[in-house]
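Methods: example folding runs. The two proteins below were folded one after another, and each record is reproduced exactly as written to the output file, sequence line first and structure-token line second.
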Amino acid sequence: MLTDTQVAGLRAKDKPYNINDKNPALKPGGLAVRVRPLKSDKTGKGSKDWIYTYTVDNARTGGPQKKRISLGPYPAVSLSQARTKAADKAAELANGIDPQQARQERKETARLAANRATLKQLLEVYLTGLETRAQESGRGAISAKSIRSIVERYVYTHDNLPDMPATEVSSTDISSLLKRTVDNRKQVKRAGVMVDVGSGNKTTQKRLRQALHAAYAEIIRRRFDPALSALDFGEIQYNPVSPVQLEQRGKIAVSVKTKHSLSEDDVRSVWNYLRTTDKNESVIGLVKLCMLTGQRPGDIRQVKWKHWIRKDNRLEIPAEITKNGRDHTVYLGERAQSVLAGLLKVTGSQEHIFAGRIGKSKWTGKPVRAETVSHVVHQISTGAGVAKFDLRGDMRRTWKEMAARSGVSFELRNRIQNHAFTDVSSRVYDKYDYLAEKAHAMAQFEHYFDSMLLEHKEPKVIQIHAHGVSI
């Protein structure tokens, strides 16, 4: 076996030559030092480097094939270090792995990883999509801006993660990242009470997790999208955010939004409050119309005065602003018509029925912002003395229950609320518009609503005969 002194004393010759280490522990291959002559070398020591030689079966001929792999130059790599590297190659051989082929595969993997799209690029695809959709639809701009701010503050400032290939980000990385949003909180005493201060909180943590999860889900969904061909995301097989759940008081907590509907007493309280409040007229009108028609606030918030067909008592909501991308007709009862007639005196000079404005006099030329609607609706629930509710879920749910009590069938309620019918019969064969039925159902609902508003009195229920059965 070689010694450090022997290796250091080896002299160059006219031609390169190898000296084997003859270390039995490095079989089935062997370690050798290769000595090469240098024309400009006056010391005669030449250059030396370590190689590991071994024999494998040739895949093409079936016979033995000698191979060698470089382990680094001497003296940068010492004898003991060379033996350690050679032992690693011997272990690969013992496991049926060709060390030379394995090295090439590692280099290729590293090359691909260097060109793989990073976590930052993945998030930019998601954030840019959010901002583009907000600009095109006229809603969600504030939310998109807020999400970008959170991502830039907690992800893009991280030391390593932004530039890490998105395929290599693990659930552990995501967990550590989410922890950053609350790590910068500190407690200070205010008025004798210790309180948390700082920019991070549980809401921020929750929103960041949602953004990360949605970003990965979008890339997985769009993995064959030609628009993303310039970015190599590799094979993202699963969403690394999914296993990460937010902790609360030492337990795993899954955030589930509370779903509820308003009672008849709540509806009366809210309606009476809306009649007397001086808050944003556009929002007040929007809330009233949602209560009376059960429509999605995101759809009717964007309707324009030209969509109100006054002579036929209906709103024609175009496909470009509906959630499901379909034209939708909403019939208006007398009370709903009076809501729009009253609003005409306020926003009639604007393009949108529920127009947005700055202050009391300056109009924005756009529909009232969704964030403004949410803020005012929260004030309405407080002012009316009812539990907090939202228009998108709670009010639509409330309308559906009230419409059921008024005698409107389940199918008609779904059609009035513009739910999509996915069965073959509805999609392919049923081309009837149900306009007359929806108009009758809305009149029927308003009759019930008027009766329900009379406090402490039982609402009048219309007797409808269907298939010979009185209901």
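Second run, written to the same file directly after the first:
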Amino acid sequence: AFQYCSSLEGISLPAGIETIESGTFSGCSSLKEVVLPAGVKSIVYGTFRYCVSLKTIALPEGIELIGSNVFDGCSSLEEIVLPASVKTLERQPLSNCDNLKRICYEGTEAEWSALKAQENYAYVDYDGSIVLVESPFSNAQVYFYSETKPDEAGNYWHYVDNTPTIW
């Protein structure tokens, strides 16, 4: 729908959308702000691929599937908020996001470990050896949601005026 709209800087999608289809915003090189409505259940292959100006995005509660290469090549992406409702990560949703510094996850550490494990995968190389490809999440620092300031040390975040903020 908006593929390669190089002048598009921001968009707020209306309620009622359940799936954001493949490549919808791919190549929107000026896209800086995206507001996704509650009710979105899936974002499929390459939706935000090469949105090189996108620095932060918050996925809505209720989203269950993040497809392959959804944020591939979002070279300016620094922060993503993932709700605990995410159940499926397809292959390399954040590949080539070299500036990704922070993942604000709304679930528990155990839920994160299970989710992250899905993103590791193996393939058989040309010489017959098995190659493990590790999650691109490994370079980013993961923070876990806590409404109140935790007593124990760790990586925690909360919202301040709708902005993810580290404790």
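Comment on the second run: The chain has a mean pLDDT of 90.
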